[in-house]
Amino acid sequence: MISTKLRCVTLLAINTFAVFAFSVPSAVWAAAADSQAAPTPIRIPAILVLAGVVSFGLLLGQVSLFGLTLGSAGVLFVGLIAGHFQLLVPGGTGEIGLAAFVYCVGLGAGPTFFRSLMQDGRTLALLGAVIVASGTVTAWGVGKLLGLPAELTGGVFAGAMTSTPALGALTTALPDSPDVAVGFGVGYPFGIIGVVAFVQILPKLLGRDLKSAAAGDPNAAATQIIRKLVEIRNPAIVGKRPGGVPMLEACNCQTPRVRDGELLRPTPHDFHFALGQQVMLVGPERNLAGVLDMLGTEVEGADQLLLDAERQRRQIVVTSPEFVGKSLKELHLLSTYGVTITRIRRHDVEFVPSAITRIEFGDMLTAVGEPENWPEVERLAGHRPSTLDQSDILSLAIGLLMGISLGMLPVSIGNQSIQLGLAGGPLIVGLILGHFGRLGPIAGHLPRSARMLLMEAGLALFLASAGVSAGGNFVEVLRSQGIWLCVGAAAVAIVPLAVGFLLADLVMKLRLLKSLGAICGGMTSTPGLAAITSATDAAEPVIAYVAAYPIALFLVTILAPILVELLR
């Protein structure tokens, strides 16, 4: 870990370097260049420039100021400095990085993208779409009103929406325009600061506290699963099966085991409740107390019994099409194999499933039941945990090839012919592969660590290339456009926030936490979501963010090049 002192010294050097570069009049640089006595400029190898820009940029991105960090965008700003001094990076670097980045983004968003459109997330997905659309309209109005160049306006739009895929789509469609990256560099700080400030200030203006708002969050503590041993005392449920007790399913609780002497055995498929019976109750901590009171009373001193039962389970990783997309009710695991699925871990989140919960590729199922039937259930599920830790390089290469090829195909819109480019093509292919998990021999799964590494590396390469290519014109554009460029960037960042909240609050009647989470998703702002989660542990804003983010990410990538065409 780099020491704080070293970080400060390095950042001081970078800032001094930037201030010196941007403050010295261009005439001085020109005079120095024309002077016979001036030393010959040092030629730095392009690969060394690339490594330096990425290294110093990531270092800059880690610095926190008032709780905000630039993250990977620090590479862009260091690249702008390097480009100002006419330094170069290897050709093709940005294109390779962009394709890898958006492809991995698609793989990660795929499992939730189409589900958010088809299920309960449709309202939140619509909110995300409206936020992006309002940002597009605002950017168009700002560009027309201030007379900004179309390419510069498109960059401001991508920056205000904090969307590097949109920046990638623009640089692919406009490879010879440095104004795109300049606009992104101007709009990005307004996008970051605007969303974070909005989610922190709005609750105060409304007289609301995020922690108190979380008290009624129906998804709070959803990932904290606990177990209790309960003795049945309620005559109203005697003779009923667990599926016949609505409160169990409504509260996402299960009774997977029943006490038999000093053992907790899996409940058989024909199990019925009886007075005095002792069952293991599993569910979210928030819901468990109410269900326990409904069933009977807690059995004290059962910790060791519950611990022994926890060891008698099997974790099954799903990779088979026979399981993927089916609900637990459709699989009939309990009646056929005597196996109950008590928990599912999906995307690092663990929850108790209900009968209608559908299985997704890569789900890790916690199963209890008859041990002799586990091998058959594992076979049907395609249980191969090693597949989740293996990176299929061939599938990765073929997926990128398909995405790049799709991006190069012309798409006719009226009399115009556009291309999806290196941002749109790989993104769409990644979304499809991520959703289905596999298409024939092509795997749509990368281990999370591998996907995140490739995504961050690709993003850093792309931002380094974009920054260096735009750095030569950055200062000149700021001088020519003046303060109005910053005013326009602020408007593009603020108007979608206001429109999104008014729609969520007045029309959709969403709770505050859900509204804020969806607004962060619509603005594709992870820092904004982090500001919410730092104030509350509620899961509601995270779920809303996940529902709104994929459609917003897709739309902002597609609309950015269209915006530029409309302004020309």
From TrEMBL:
GO terms for cellular component: plasma membrane. Keywords: Cell membrane, Membrane, Signal, Transmembrane, Transmembrane helix, Transport. Residues 299-383 form the RCK C-terminal domain. GO terms for molecular function: monoatomic cation transmembrane transporter activity. The chain crosses the membrane at residues 40-60, 65-85, 97-117, 124-143, 180-202, 393-413, 419-440, 452-470, 482-504, 516-536, 542-564. Pfam families: Asp-Al_Ex, TrkA_C. It is a multi-pass membrane protein. Residues 1-21 form the signal peptide. InterPro entries: AAE_transporter, RCK_C, RCK_C_sf, YidE_YbjL. The keyword Transport applies. Belongs to the AAE transporter (TC 2.A.81) family. This is Transporter. It comes from Blastopirellula sediminis.
